[in-house]
Amino acid sequence: MQENHQNVSLVPAIIEIAHSMGMKAIAEGVETCEQLSQIRNLNCDFAQGNLFSSAMEPQSILDLMLTTPQW
């Protein structure tokens, strides 16, 4: 959304299509608080990206899942 402003109007349309089909929408590649705020305002259901965590090795993910994380 940040790099190609012509595509900004596609994002709410895609979210709405997902919702109209009874699906949840996931925003990928969220890297800034501004991006997170934008997708929240568009009623996107979930987000993932470097804002939350950088990519992890599979074993690191398993180790995290086996702990009792405090979210």
C-alpha end-to-end distance: 28 Å
Shape, per Cα inertia axes: globular
The level of helicity is 40-55%
Can you list the strand order of the major beta sheet? 1-2
Indicate the mean pLDDT.
Answer: 89
Largest sheet: 2 strands, parallel
Query: pLDDT below 50 for ≥5 consecutive residues: which ranges?
Result: none
Percent in strands? 5-15%
Output the radius of gyration: 15 Å
The arrangement of helices and strands along the chain is HEHEH
Kindly give the count of domains: 1
**Tally of helical segments:** 3
Number of strands: 2
Structural class by sheet pairing and helices: mainly alpha
List the helices and strands and how they pair.
Blueprint: H1 10-20, E1 26-27, H2 33-41, E2 46-47, H3 58-66
Parallel strand pairs: 1-2
Please give a structural write-up:
It is built from 3 helices and 2 strands. The two termini are 28 Å apart. It has one domain. The chain has helices spanning 10-20, 33-41, 58-66, and strands at residues 26-27, 46-47. The protein has 71 residues and is mainly α. The chain has a two-stranded parallel sheet with strand order 1-2. The model has no long low-confidence stretch (mean pLDDT 89). Helices cover 41% and strands 6% of the residues. Helix 2 links the parallel strand 1 and strand 2 (46-47).
